[in-house]
Amino acid sequence: EVQLVESGGGLVQPGGSLKLSCAASGFTFNNHAMNWVRQAPGKGLEWVSTITGSGGAIYYADSVKGRFTISRDNSKNTLYMQVNSLRADDTAVYYCAIGRSPYGSYLDYWGLGTLVTVSS
Amino acid sequence: DIQMTQSPSTLSASVGDRVSITCRASQSMSSWLAWYQQKPGKAPKLLIYKASSLESGVPSRFSGSGSGTEFTLTISSLQPDDFATYYCQQYNSYPYTFGQGTKLEIK
Predict the structure, then answer these.
(1) How confident is the model at residue A53 (pLDDT cuts 50, 70, 90)?
(2) Which of A50, A95, A106 sits opposite B43 (nearest CB)?
């Protein structure tokens, strides 16, 4: 059974940092690109970042470029997102999601998400 | 960047109705479009990929069509479980983008 379990969210002050994790199981992790998608309270879905299966290519939304860093450890079947210089508009549920192919593609399974709240 | 515009934003319908949601892309993107369903407090669920391919386990009352810049999600006969928010997403090119969502409400 495919499982994605996000962790690392919480309450952080503006300008602060967090490291989000997504522990994956039930599929061949390095055969799939992995993604972070976020959803602000009461709002729609926003794609944040993708990392290919090998980790050789990385893509970011302009809204997070230079502040967020995606990475993966294929030996641990874990996806990460280092989030720095947080702002109030980064407040959201952060979902990790599996890409169908090693290079990207649609998101065929999502975790339950972890909530990041940026507030003083 | 490819912008995705969904319509309508809200749709009121009854059980048994046939409904359609449209997604328009700001530039041609072949058929690299997916549709997701999201219920309150839950993660999104993939319904359709490559514009018209039904994900395994998704009821056949869901269908997708279109290519290029205009795409449609159709539910042939609404069931109580279908009242949710629906999103389209293009995966033709980075940055991936979602439509703003369509909330399907019970009339």
Answers:
(1) very high
(2) A95
